[in-house]
Design a protein that fits this description.
Residues 54-144 form the Polysaccharide export protein N-terminal domain. The chain is elongated. By secondary structure, it is an alpha+beta fold. A hairpin with a 3-residue loop joins strand 3 and strand 4 (111-114). It has helices at 2-25, 75-81, 120-131, 170-176, 231-234, 243-260; strands at 65-71, 96-98, 104-107, 111-114, 139-144, 148-153, 159-162, 168-169, 184-195, 198-204, 218-219, 224-229.
Length: 261
C-alpha cells in the first residue's frame, strides 16, 4: 500500500510542477497593454516631466559621422565642398566627417572645428562661422550619417537598428525592433544614453500613457534600449509553452492513475 502511495506521489509531483509553471507564466493584461491610464491607481505619481522641445535635443558625440553640404554661388567652391566618392551621380555618396574624441571634425580649407556640446543646429552655425573668411554667402546643412540605436534583451529584433532620422519616439523605436516579446517586461525599459559627462540610465514604463509627449518620449542616436525578461522566461518557459501541453500531461497522468488503481 505504501508503495502504491509513493507511485501516486511520484506521478502527481510533475503535474503539480507543471500547474505551478503554467499559472505563473500567465501574463496579466496590465503587464502587456500599452497606453494604460494609471492615474486612478493608489499612490500613483506621474514620473515624467513635460516635453519642452522636440527637435535639437541630441548633443553630438564622438564617432558620430556628419554629412555636411555647403551651398554657395561660387560654382568652383560649391563643387569643392560637396565632393562625392564617385563620378557617377547615381552611385555617388557624400563624404562624411567623423567627430573625433576631442569633439572635432577636420573640414576642408578650415581645418579643425570643435563641436563639443553642439546640437546639429549649433554645429551648422559653427561651420558657417568658420567658412566666413572663404565664403560670405555659405548656406550649410548638417545631418548625421546613418543614425541608429541598439536593442537588447526581449525585443524580437536585437542588435544595432537604423533609425532613418536623427530622432524617433520610444514607440517607433520599439516597433523598429519588432516589438517586445511576450515575456519582456514592458514596465521596465532601460535606456542607456551617452552624454558628455558619462552614460545616463533611464527606466521607463511602456504601459503608462503619460510617457506620450513627455520629456523621455524620444530616443536619440547611440541610445541602448534593454528589455529584461519576466521571471517565467528565466525559468525557461518560452512562447511555445501552451495550455495544450499542460492538458496532454494531465490526461496522461489520469490515464496512469486509472491503470494503477
Amino acid at each position: 500500500m505504501s508503495s502504491f502511495k509513493n507511485n501516486k506521489i511520484k506521478i502527481l509531483s510533475p503535474v503539480l510542477i507543471l500547474f505551478t509553471l503554467y499559472f505563473n507564466s500567465c501574463i496579466p493584461h496590465r503587464e502587456i497593454i500599452y497606453f494604460q491610464d494609471h492615474e486612478d491607481k493608489k499612490g500613483y505619481e506621474n514620473p515624467f516631466g513635460e516635453l519642452e522641445t522636440v527637435t535639437e535635443r541630441y548633443i553630438l558625440q564622438p564617432n558620430d559621422a556628419l554629412i555636411i553640404r555647403v551651398r554657395t554661388s561660387n560654382p568652383q567652391l560649391y563643387e569643392f565642398f560637396n565632393m562625392t566618392s564617385s563620378q557617377n551621380v547615381a552611385q555617388a555618396t557624400q563624404w562624411t566627417y567623423p567627430i573625433d574624441d576631442n569633439y572635432e571634425i577636420d573640414f576642408p580649407f578650415v581645418g579643425k572645428i570643435n563641436l563639443k556640446g553642439c546640437t546639429r543646429q549649433e554645429a551648422k552655425d559653427k561651420i558657417i562661422e568658420a567658412l566666413l573668411p572663404f565664403l560670405s554667402d555659405a548656406q550649410v546643412t548638417v545631418r548625421i550619417a546613418n543614425p541608429s540605436f541598439v536593442a537588447l534583451g526581449e525585443f524580437a529584433s536585437r542588435g544595432r537598428i537604423a533609425m532613418g532620422r536623427d530622432q524617433v519616439n520610444i514607440f517607433e523605436a520599439v516597433a523598429l525592433a519588432g516589438d517586445v516579446r511576450p515575456f519582456g517586461k514592458k514596465r521596465e525599459l532601460t535606456i542607456i544614453r551617452p552624454t558628455m559627462d558619462g552614460s545616463e540610465t533611464i527606466v521607463l514604463d511602456l504601459t503608462d500613457r503619460n510617457l506620450i509627449d513627455s520629456d523621455h518620449f524620444y530616443i536619440y542616436p547611440n541610445d541602448i534600449l534593454y528589455i529584461r525578461p519576466m521571471r517565467a522566461r528565466q525559468w525557461g518557459i518560452g512562447e511555445s509553452f501552451s495550455f495544450g501541453i499542460l492538458t496532454s500531461v494531465i490526461a496522461f497522468y489520469f490515464t496512469l492513475n486509472a491503470i494503477l488503481n
